[in-house]
Design brief:
This protein is mostly helical. The chain contains five helices and two strands; from the N terminus they run αααααββ. The protein is elongated, with a radius of gyration of 18 Å.
Length: 108
Amino acid sequence: VPPYVFSPDLEARIVQRGFNFRSASLLRQFEPNLQIRVLSKSFEGARDPSAVLVKRCQDDQSCRTQSVEADAKTTFERGGWHCVRCNDIQFRRNLVCRMCGAARPDAT
């Protein structure tokens, strides 16, 4: 889960709309601009606001893409690396690729 700053405004909206734990957790994973975009649409008349929220996030390709990009960015900001043999993304602590066993390029 990408590390985003706690937002009292977001938490207030979650409580106000009565989102369940699953949908609130999904929403918290996204960057603030994506949270705002998903929440800006009306939930009025929704029988199950939590289900509507989950569906909106699943339908919004940019939400999923942004989440994956944020995970990859965080990995590289912390010293992650790409395996030169299989192109798998590795954490800094890995001295060899967890997929194919190739040595990290800068490992000595």
